[in-house]
Specification:
Helix 3 crosses helix 4. Strands 3, 4, 5, 6, 7, 14 and 15 form a seven-stranded mixed sheet that branches. This protein has a six-stranded parallel sheet with strand order 10-9-8-11-12-13. It has two domains: 149 residues, Quinone Oxidoreductase, Chain A, domain 1 (Alpha-Beta Complex), CATH 3.90.180; 129 residues, NAD(P)-binding Rossmann-like Domain (Rossmann fold). By secondary structure, the chain is of the alpha/beta class. The two termini are 30 Å apart. The protein is 23% helix and 26% strand.
């Protein structure tokens, strides 16, 4: 099989294609024939070495077919999502034509959607759902502010929240990106015109905006930090008495929790995500699709902050025709 290996910590050029044996399924694992995988900011940090020692093959999610089940519960050819479970961190990840994954992190799906569309779903929509429904407790009729609304996770959050019946505001840094947000049913806003007294904020920028996000909530409102698009840095100073508004609840969510005890994948309605995509209720589409041989270009685009949505890699040689 082909796999994309990190030669050493560094820039996108450190990603190279190599040959390797197809992994065999062990007890408690499933080998997935990877048809496509999404690219995530986490994989950039892994490639750079910013998160310490990680696997030499990165990738935290994919879509494909069962190749071999170590427990013989799943049948070869069944379509699945696979995500997290140490992929790219403690075990080789999804930047390959085959990947061995803990069976707790494999989800059966029923769909005929193209691989590149399915690959835009697993991590982004699972994280968005976990943040909005499980963490923020978003209810129909409430107001939500999504910071970094044109990111892949931001767009997934808009989809989930609009379908939930919330009134959604989403930030963008440029007027050119506002129509994307508005087509999804949200209201585009800018940093100098953010709404106040909202019920909830999903902050995907991180520590640089955390305190400000809390100031935008009503008393009893909630903030969930689930990204670090503004940089993966800690807070230099935080005075809880002076900086944090009384009565506003702060939580965090990290996708690495997905599949762990208390955050089982069975609690996330993946098939509903797929069904809504098929029905056009969720506006799921990759911003751009690459071949494996274009992985360096894909990572450069991710680092440029100009992706405007989910980047997807197909493991086959043929890319979909441009619309």
């Amino acid at each position: 099989m082909r796999m994309i290996k990190i030669q050493e910590a560094g820039g996108p050029e450190e990603l190279v294609i190599e040959e390797a044996p197809i992994p065999r399924a062990l007890a408690g694992t499933v080998v997935v024939r990877v048809r496509a995988f999404g690219i995530n900011r986490a994989e950039v940090y892994m490639r750079q070495g910013a998160w310490g020692q990680c696997a030499d093959v990165t990738g935290i999610e994919c879509v494909g077919e069962v190749h071999e089940d170590g427990d013989q519960r799943l049948c070869a050819g069944q379509r699945v999502f696979a995500l997290m479970g140490g992929m790219g961190r403690s075990i080789r990840g999804s930047y390959a034509e085959y990947v061995r994954v803990p069976r707790s992190n494999v989800v059966l799906i029923d769909s005929e959607l193209p691989w590149e569309v399915l690959a835009a779903i697993p991590e982004s929509y699972a994280t968005a759902y976990s943040c909005l429904i499980s963490t923020l407790g978003l209810q129909p009729g409430q107001t939500l502010l999504v910071r970094a609304g044109t990111s892949s996770l931001g767009q997934a959050a808009i989809d989930v929240a609009v379908h939930r019946g919330a009134r959604v505001f989403a930030t963008t840094r440029s007027a050119e990106r506002a129509p994307l947000i508005e087509r999804m049913g949200a209201i585009a806003v800018y940093d100098d015109s953010l709404p106040s007294s909202v019920d909830a904020v999903l902050d995907l920028i991180g520590t640089s905006t955390l305190v400000h996000s809390m100031s935008l909530c009503r008393r009893g409102g909630r903030v969930c930090v689930a990204g670090f698009l503004g940089g993966h840095a800690g807070l230099d100073r935080l005075d809880p008495v002076l900086d944090l508004p009384s009565g506003v609840h702060l939580s965090v969510f990290a996708s690495l929790l997905l599949g762990k005890p208390g955050f089982e994948l069975s609690s996330i309605p993946f098939q509903a995500f797929v069904d809504r995509a098929e029905a056009g209720v969720y506006r799921i589409a990759p911003a751009r699709v690459f071949a494996m041989g274009q992985i360096v270009e894909a990572h450069r685009l991710m680092e440029s902050d100009q992706a405007n949505g989910k980047l997807v890699v197909l493991t086959g040689e043929d890319l979909p025709a441009s619309p």
